[in-house]
Amino acid sequence: MATTFSNDDNLPPLPLPDLHDTLSLYLETIRPHVNDEEYEKTAEIVREFEHGQGKVLHEELKERANSMGNWVSILLISILLLYLLYVHTYVQGVSKIVDI
Q: Are 45 and 34 in contact (CB under 8 A)?
């Protein structure tokens, strides 16, 4: 019986979505949920991100994607660990206040 990750080496690398396409999809997704003023402000922030820090971060992701097959997994693990650290810290802080 094969293990969960036994065929990882046989799988093609995960594609890295285009930054512009991802941001366009984001704007399309939020459009029904915000008013015109909120949408325009958000679209402005997205444009600034796309041509500023987003461009830099996307280049870093491209480098990561070229050097490893599954560039997402390490990011997801990092996010999960940060979230768990946050929850643990929050619970510890509440327990000191409430004496749980």
A: no
pTM: 0.65
Q: Are 20 and 53 within one domain?
A: yes
Q: Give the rounded percent of residues in the chain with a pLDDT score beyond 70.
A: 84
Please give the single-letter amino acid code of residue 55.
Answer: K
Give the span between the Cα atoms of 32 and 75, in whole angstroms: 29
Residues of the domain holding 31: 16-67
The pLDDT tens digits of the residues spanning 3-27 come to 877 887 788 877 889 999 999 999 9
Q: Looking at the 3D structure of the chain, how many domains does it have?
A: 2
pLDDT of residue 94: 56
SS3 letters across 32-78: HHCCHHHHHHHHHHHHHHHHCHHHHHHHHHHHHHHHCCCHHHHHHHH
